[in-house]
Amino acid sequence: MNGKNDVELKLGRFVDFDKGDVVVGDSFVNGIRTKKVNKLVSYAAKVDSSTIFPIRGNVYSDGLYYTYILVGNPPRPYFLDMDTGSDLTWIQCDAPCSSCAKGPNPLYKPTRDNILPSKDSLCTEIQRNQKTGQCETCQQCDYEIQYADSSSSLGVLAKDDLHLTMKNGSLTNVNIVFGCGYDQQGILLNSLAKTDGILGLSRAKVSLSSQLASKGVIKNVVGHCLSIDAGGGGYMFLGEDYVPHWGMSWIPMLDTPSVDFYHSEIVRINYGNRQLKLGSWSSRAEQVVFDSGSSYTYFSKEPYSDLVASLEDLSVVGLVRDFSDPSLPICWQAKMPLRSVADVKQFFKTITLQFGSSWWIVSTRLRIPPEGYLIISSKGNVCLGILDGSKVHDGSSTILGVIANLVCRHIDDKHLVVYDNENQKIGWTNSGCVKPHRSDSLPFFE
In whole angstroms, what separates CA 317 from the centre of its chain? Predict the structure, then answer.
């Protein structure tokens, strides 16, 4: 990212659009067959398997973490932005493409048999909130996603084989539904220089994890551990096999049927020992969204203003606001260019989010040290990776982006974050991000 206008905030939602304005290649319009393909003949009644994906990327300057999947026959690789705030997985495709970035891999090229018919249940699910409703006579299922940063993706739904390597080493082919995106707009096109699309991992029925769970391949659990090391990276897993038995801090997901985000409720935010305001009253609860597709963290108006006010006295330690640095809205210049957050972390305090009970001693808390909300810009300045969220999403929620998912006590201590859709809870624990391993006998996660 070259400036603050490039900050990504996904939280994608399907929107209504005029189907008469959609331009799609002739191969999509005429003679579409609706043969269903599913190579999953049967699965054992007890699901006990997981699949793991390597992760690459960083918060700054890429602003995203991505993995790859293998799709089609023969299987072809596609690099996808890992996004727990998006419902639909989509890949840039030649349909033909009217607006696609030049990504790392050739565009996905569907056949007529790949196009999902409008009568499919997942098409109904996607179009249920659109004003025009489902099109009974259409031969294809159109989608349009509008992201919180005003980017968008327009396309049709396709189905093809996803090739997975399971925990036990077996290879599995699963027929999945995903978006064939032929028109991308906005700053999303910047990230598509490194990726071919987005991996949707929300709670929605159309998300990849939900589809695999509905077919009996995995339990509906998503986990990731993102590295803060210079090379970036980490891993992501789908299924419950890599969830540790001990050491996890769990909070309940809010049960909101119309919302597919991973969200919970906080009752308090502290900067060091100072309690930040929530809403109009300091004791008012506020929703918090866990979103791996957002580069940075967003606070609603009151806690953001309070946090900025708490940082106004940094000049006494030699940090002066640099308004010429476009990396982020708030950056400070030191006497000498900075190389890492470690050079200035002693001047900043830990941010603590308190969940559930207002009683400090019995509540669950998520601590975000300076490494979890600061970045060093290309100018050698230290910048605040928490932004004003009053004009994004619903304007009143805290959004924890990937920078907060890197929270750690020291450079080799990262957070594993788990979204357990089976038990409707979100959890985290300190973990190394090199290799996942669940211990069945020791009370720690290596």
Answer: 36
